[in-house]
Write a structure and sequence with these properties.
Length: 212
């Protein structure tokens, strides 16, 4: 009779990879937030100055219009970066997580529908400067937001990291106070990093396997 130790119980590699993809996607979103925030500020400022100086004409009007165009360009760049982050990393990561754990399937579906279509419509609306398309895109983004909230609450429930819970709450508040959105993404980025580290280092006790 001999004793052979079985490998320790470790978290699924697929789960770790899913979290890694999601975290990369969140990083893209944070970068996009910088472009979107700066672009929106410049665009609003340019629009205000353009209206105020419309009667002046000449160089003042041209400068104001240039600011408006620059702000719009930064918004488009930010939307593209966010779209790449969601499409290439975050959404595939959420889908991978849902395949491993069906508890995340609803959140994954809402995120995919909301953010893919929402970002595309917002991008098209910004380029064509069509307000109705931007509004429809915003509605889709709200669907994606709901998916993110559900996922954050579920992650807190399963992995016991209160930062997921706080991120989910901040996502809700960001619907009414938009600048809180970046705080939500930062919290999610940090929480995912902690979950990845714990998942990579945790291991269960070694169990002996009796062979005769």
């Amino acid at each position: 009779m001999s004793y052979v130790s079985t490998p320790p119980t470790t978290p699924s590699t697929d789960v770790v990879r899913a979290f890694q993809k999601m975290r990369r996607g969140v990083l893209y979103v944070l970068i996009a937030w910088v472009f979107l925030g700066v672009g929106f500020t410049i665009m609003v400022g340019g629009l205000f100055v353009t209206v105020m100086r419309a009667a002046v004409g000449g160089g003042a009007l041209i400068a104001a219009l240039s600011g408006l165009i620059l702000g719009l360009a930064l918004i488009v760049i930010g939307a593209i970066i966010a779209l790449v982050g969601f499409y290439a990393d975050f959404i595939p990561g959420a889908d991978d997580l849902a395949r491993v754990n069906p508890d995340f399937s609803t959140a994954s579906s809402l995120i995919r529908i909301g953010y893919i279509w929402g970002l595309i419509l917002c991008l098209v609306g910004a380029i064509l400067t069509i307000v109705i398309i931007l509004l429809i895109g915003y509605v889709f983004l709200l669907i994606g937001f709901i998916g993110i909230m559900i996922m954050c609450f579920k992650l807190n429930e399963i992995y016991g990291n209160v930062m997921y819970l706080i991120a989910g709450i901040f996502f809700i508040l960001s619907i009414f106070i938009p600048f809180l959105g970046i705080v939500s993404w930062v919290l999610l980025y940090v929480a995912l990093g902690e979950t990845i580290r714990k998942s990579q280092t945790s291991a269960g006790p070694t169990q002996p396997l009796i062979q005769v």
